[in-house]
Amino acid sequence: MLDHRFRVAGAAVLGLALAGCGASATGATGGVKIGYFQGAVAGPEAVVAANPELAAKVPGKIELRPIDSGVAGMAQLRAGAFPFVSGVGNPPLVGAFSNGTDVKAVFVESIDASGLAVNDKIKAPGDLTKVGVLVGSTLDFQLRGWLASQRLTGKVQIASFASEAAEAAAWKAGKIDAVYISRSFLLELQKHKARVLVASADVAKLGYAAVNLLAVTSAYAKQHPDVVQGLVCQISKAQTLVKGPDVGKYVTPASRFLGVKPEDAITATKSYPYVPAEEEGAWLKGADGKASSGRLAQNFKLTGEFLVAQGRAKSVPTAEQIAAHIDPSFWDKAQAGGCK
Questions:
Q1: pTM across the whole model
Q2: For residue 24, which phi and psi values (nearest 5 degrees)?
Q3: Please, what is the angle between helix 295-309 and helix 277-284, to 10°?
Q4: Tens digit of pLDDT for each residue in 103-126?
Q5: DSSP string covering 10-72
Q6: d(CA 275, CA 266)
Q7: What is the count of structural domains for the chain?
Q8: 231-260: per-residue pLDDT in tens?
Q9: Do residues 187 and 320 share a domain?
Q10: Element (H, E) at 134
């Protein structure tokens, strides 16, 4: 899906070094190719790429390749355009491995900031009649999960849109009474007297979190574990740094990859809900140390059910299949002093 870090699509290829095609990260140029999203929030991959003190600790030169949706990014990964995707949502990732792409989630970056915007006629969930959402996205996943928790499945019409701009316009025109939409659009709709009936943080507590991840092909992780380890370490560090007093120092150079002004990137990044380091482990594995009992595995199971209901997967992956696509080992090593 389209990741919702206030991102916009980009067609140009940006990077720190020129490179040839293919997914190898240690070829003649030593390039580390990463599919990423542009937009106001500085993703951790952009922060790492733009700051030499961080980038130098990743073996190879980082090359950022813009993508406009998680689904498109996973398709490009499978085709060999790059071995990593940063910020990919749970539906595109689960959809990819459910349909044969051998890919692993190695780090949980953030939880989407979004919400259900309603007009002044909607006072409670039972008042909803027609809700707009970006079709097949993590937002769609969250909305349907929340409606199920409210026992409103089948009682509320879901209007599917190909873009968030279109659903926002439909709400402004009074064609729908609510939209489940990302924060950038949510802030704009609030200027038009929209009220947030439920926020994504509340929906996430029900198990329907819109999770943004660092994913890598299994083959690449096996062949280049040092690169994966370096990225996990430095992406984690970048997320901590942008929440500190030197946010401007780290985000300003990253803004050249985002397509926005530095001041806008700084403002958006400071408030973005990156997963705190102290919570990372619980996402990747449970108290028993197994990926199958972690929060991410639970999320992937619910995501699989969503994909089957949408006709995008034939069956819900088993606990064993889900665990095979979550690799906590790089985070474990990082916590054990494995970072440079």
A1: 0.82
A2: -65, 135
A3: 60
A4: 999 999 998 889 999 999 999 999
A5: --S---SS---SSS-SSSTT-EEEEEE-EESS--HHHHHHH-HHHHTTSSSEEEEEE-S-HHH
A6: 18
A7: 2
A8: 999 999 999 999 999 999 999 999 999 988
A9: no
A10: strand 130-134
